[in-house]
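I'll show a typical protein example:
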Amino acid sequence: ALATGYNNYLYENFTKAEKRLKGMALLPLQDIPAAVKELRRAVKELGCVGGILPAVGLRQPFGDERYFPVYEAAQELNALLAVHAAPTQGIGVDGFDRLIEVRTLSHGFGQMIQTTSMIYSGVYDRFPKLKVAYAEAGCGWVPYLMERLDMEYEHRPNQAPDCKKAPSEHLKSGRIYIHCELEDRGISQVAEVVRDDILFCASDFPHEPRSEFRENIERFMAREDVSADIKRKICFENPKRMYP
């Protein structure tokens, strides 16, 4: 009910009134049939371009087969799915007493958990047209994880029988998108090691004021370590390709 209410609110107050705005539906993953139904409704009736996979409160990472009906529906609808973090219970941050410690690790670890689970469980093999974006952890974790995934897959392929190709091939396929913070120092490296047409930025509004995002854009555009071509792709071309 909360997901439906939020999606209706998003449509009535924003995307219905302004056609340039595109919505991403909130999906109630605690009830998979309801999540599939809401994704279909949001795309077909509300004009949403995809759905958010919220991990908070869910024990199983997104490689679990229980989520496969959502992936099947998203692939059929040509709808993007966006992953935000992962369950963090038991990964070592439980003992922290300060938010700064948790925030330093939780988002990056969360995205690595979800990416590892989805790749080794064969999500991208079983759904070859599925598009997924991993958001709000920066992009520096990707080259490290890609190297680790390939190494373990080479040594223990029998433990991931549903993964039919090297994990790096999936990450370089062009249908897995990675959010980058505009101050990330490794943007050019990720663009070179993975590919430059899968990086995108986000304002995180309303968490961050719009003025702060404008300042970040200005600083990003003034950077000399990132080419003009990559800047254009991150700020315009890649998001346009990512959201159908």
Notes: The mean pLDDT is 93. The longest strand covers residues 50-54.
